Records
---
Amino acid sequence: MNKIVEIKNLVKTYGSKEFETKALKAIDLDIYENDFIAIMGPSGSGKTTLLNMLSTLDKPTQGSILIDGVDITKINNKDLSKLRKEKIGFIFQDYNLLDNMSLEDNIALPLSLDGVDKKQIIAKTVKIAAMFGLTEHLKKYPYQLSGGQKQRGASARALITDPKIIFADEPTGALDSKSSRDLLESLESANQRNQATILMVTHDAFSASYAKQVYMLRDGAITARLNAGRDRSEFYDRILKLLASMGSGSE
Amino acid sequence: MSLFPLSFSNFKRSLKNYVSLIASLSFTIFILFNFQNIVFSDALDQLRYMQKSYINIVVQSVSVVLIFFMFFFVWYATNVFLNQRKKEIGIYTFMGLDNSKIGRMYLLESLFTGLFALMIGLFTGIIFSKLFMMILLAISDIRANISFQISLNPILITAAVFLAIYLLMMLKGYLNIVRSSVLDMLSASRKNELRKECGWVTAFKVVIGLVILLSGYFVALRTGSLSSMGYALLATVLVIIGVYLLYDGFIPFILQKLTANKAFLYQKQRNLWVNNLAFRMKKNYRTYAIVTILLTSSVTVLATSLAMKNRYDGVANFRETYTYQVMSFSKMDQAELTRRVEKDNKIKYQSSMMISVLKSNRVDTQFSESGYSIISYSQIKAAAKAANQTFDYPKLEENEVIELDHQYIMSFASDFTGTQKMKMDGQTYEITAVSKTPYLGSLQENMETYIVSDETYQRLKPTMQTLYLENIRIKNPQNFAASKDDLDPLMTAELDPENSQSIQYVAVDPSNPDISWIRIMYSITVFLFLVFLFASVSVIFMKLYNDAFDDKERYTILKKIGIPKKTLRQSIAKEIRFAYFCPFVLMVISSYFSVHALANVMKTNLIQINIYSTLAIGIICFIFYHISVNSFIKNIA
């Protein structure tokens, strides 16, 4: 299987020398094609730091991150933005749809700005909207959509470029349980049917139970790893148990 | 907590955030003050004295345009302000303030802002009015006709007009706050930009807008003689309404259609900037309309000023050709005249002429004049050479003449365009050309003269009385009075055709006080052109400056999802280009019609002025466009 992301000895420290805070302590993590990984952990465990580093928003103090074979800590800004554009899809907690265009245009945006053939864009938009159950909402503006619809729209936008990997930062953080389930099912089917590779950061054990593996992050280090079994509710129980054993509850 | 200190501290904090609001309000005050200052300065007093009714029309229409401009500008600026403030002051609801208290807080804050802007506007206005006046005096080559004092009236009027408009808008904002819910307030900055309208309302606006605009253009084409001046007013009103409706109907309609056409939209950066334009149009259409009208007005105003200037120069030219013109019915001693003039002045050039005078009953032309005269081709040619004037008419045939005409400052009479023929002693001559070059100096303004071929002149001369002319131009025409004492003793009491020894002369004062008001008029119109032009581009600039803050969030999202900066920059550039060049293009079309109408009224060809001023505005728009792109990118960073 193809290795998409390879994190080696990743260290991130904040502050000056005497008052150093280690946000990440020597993280090693490999993500393979068609993985669906959830990263869990309490506040301050370094989840966001890790994701920022992976999404090229922040530079590590030590170590390397290889995305599709390219060390993103060593390339220049121009190549970095090319890599972001071509290989990474982003899903955020607060949707980040543009309020000045219809959902359809929002989804089509990454492709349309990339000079892709317009017929192909239109076809792909329709297809991916159907996958996220958004077909009847395509002409609407974000303010006419519910939170769940917006988040599914944002996910469709992230997936339309067929990125090598999708980084999802608390995608269900602002959603109710029904909307969360709809979104997670869509992501799950993107992972299973479209071979999408997903890295999701979440607080929520229920969301994490849709992943294939769950990593526990604590004080800047990976402390545990769980693999999904056949049954999701059983996996959910195991995640809850692990959280309880770590003493942080579902935080 | 008392409202006053809270409002004041809010105001102090928001001072930085609302620089553009205060700047724009101050700017309108600045403009209005400067104009009012001109109205109340001595310059316009002179103007009123000279051509009261004519100047009143100009002053009134310009005042109306400026107050219109201020009204919409303040409306726009306070609306932006209100929406930005609402979100922030909405939070106070959670602190237990009710809507009417928040409303009062808004009133207080707006009052501080308005008074602050008024202070800045008047202060800068007073400072720059002097600078403007000085520059304008330099432009129009006037030696201190306008005094530099600042009177109280323009300050009071400007403050009153501004405060009236501003208080109205404040009240509107207050009612808006009092009537809105907390939710409205918190989401205010996001709302207000979405355009949802019934299909038939849009269709109505599209059709009516186009009809009104086109009929405005049509009426402008019909404006010509003095009797059709009402058309000019009608055309102005129609074009203003038409332009508004165009931006409110037709253009958003087209933009909506473009965003719906995905094959068009999903190319280059269109998905971003066309969508943004379409989304914004409802909020921004007034701005675009104001800018278009201002730009059109500025071109029209400049064309007016240059048309006047052309006429003035033409007239001045007549006065500058010769300083002294001595006339007699017998030949004069040129050496004696020269000697006398050279006592106090140096002669630049001089010439002698013979003009033959005809009684009007021997001549038949389209217009009847009291007297006519003829002069030979070779005499004019020689005099023109001495005076360094161009004279490139081909040698005249026996039956050909050239008419010598002169400039009028204020005349709506059409130029001679009738049959190009005249009759003298029963014989028909063809008028091959009409020249407004002052070959005969200032005398040309008082005599109807034809240049005839040398043969014709020799043939007719014996039957006519001959007027001898000695023309002298001194080096420094301003010193014309010095030689008067030397010339006066030679002169007889009057020029009497019965007495061949009678001799008279005219001495020309080049400063020409009776038409100098044209120069003041010219400087004021140039001033207005600058004001309008500066106002227009500033309006766009400030709109974009504000938009950048609204857009900040959007561009942050775009950067987050990995859209390269280069793409964003291109999209921003295209959107800003539209903001500058859409009004520009509409201005080019509208100004063509307005200048055309003006050209008809003034009986001059103004197409060149139209092209040049358009080019100038184009260049300035281009420069501001680049500055805007850079500041926009800085603001969203």
---
Amino acid sequence: MNIVIVVVVLLLIYVFMTYNSLITKRNKVKQAASGIDVYLTQRFELIPNLVECVKGYAEHEKEIFEEISKMREKYLKNKNLKDGEILNNECNKIIAISENYPELKANEQFLELQKKLSKMESQLQAARRIYNSEVNVYNNKVQTFPSNIMASLFNFKEEEYFQAEQEATNNIKL
Amino acid sequence: MKNFNDIYEKIYAECSQPLEELRKKTRNGITTVILISIIVGIILTIITRSIFMIFLAIIISIFYIALSKNNKNYRTMFKEKIIKSFVKEYSDSLEFYPTKGISEMTYRQAKFEYYERYHSEDLITGTLEGGYAINMAEVQTETEETDSDGNRTTYTVFHGLFAEIGLDKMINSDIRIRRDGMSLFNKKDKIEMDSGEFEKKFNVYSTDKIIAMQLLTSDIMDMLLDFKEKNKITPEITIEGNKFYIRFATGSVFEAKLMKKALDYDTLKRYYDIINFTLDLTEKFLKNINETEV
């Protein structure tokens, strides 16, 4: 009888510990995702200034600017990482446009904005790598035995990584 | 910076022969004394039937090696001729000082480990391309432990090459890269890197994850892994404020070995690879620091 009690107690301790560990790791993934969101938001705060600056030189690219402004508004209303990454790619397009306008490239305000965006892109990349490593730790816990039993019992689902193709698009040299 | 083979050939042509002659002379002298001591020791042991005579022979041999004028000359000459020329050939802006070392205060700033005794010698000092100051030297740290009987034993904590490089930018955080298993720091500061292979061999600690990730890019992680794989030494790094510190647990360096040729290709190549790696790695970190504007 005593052995049964000891086994049950040990089993309960294991369940509590594994459950708590899964929660901690999932929270770290969420924390890493919010880290990305912080850098995306900071980056998007520069969009109005950037559009204003580029507009004067590239009037006929108006459609792109309008589309980006709309996407930004949409993102700020309903923040999610996928939309944020798409908008971030669009944001990089504005910088790519500048390549066609040598006068714009010499504009001090534009250069300052480009510098800030470059710094933020680097921070964003770092935040993405942190996110992926946290997802890796969490997914390993969800997939490996015996913690996978607890994960499926308490409905812990695997998290998605940032895809390599997605990152490659973002790595546009600013 | 010159190719290793060019450096080797130049030193070989300039100073290898007289030094090699001195090495052979010293080695032969020592071998003769050891052989005579052992033979005399064995004969005396047989005559006196006391094993003490063998120990006496060993002690005499050790004293001879330690006090041999030729041996001392050869060791000094080796550093003065081979290592000094090697450093100078490697880069005109670097100098080698065999009797100087890196200050203990500098080593402490890198926050590697706890120790009680510190010794440093064989200083390489100068400036890198871009005007960054570099100091590199052999460092040995030791600690003492007392057992339950009150006997004190001295342990070597670290013995190898340590370098300090001045950066032109302040990093508002600290980054520490240590070999796996050396967890002296707060686990809260440990960073999970996004390379499984790197995670297995190194531990990274930092108070700012973003800055650590910005600086430790995949090419730097690959470089560290590659060096570890090829040289079987784990480089350990600290970046704090405007300083970059790196160390390699190589054991004794820049010392003459009587049983090896004065200008041993593999030994010199090893020194070349370590110095090269330190400078390349620093350059990469500096590039990341400047690009990311941390």
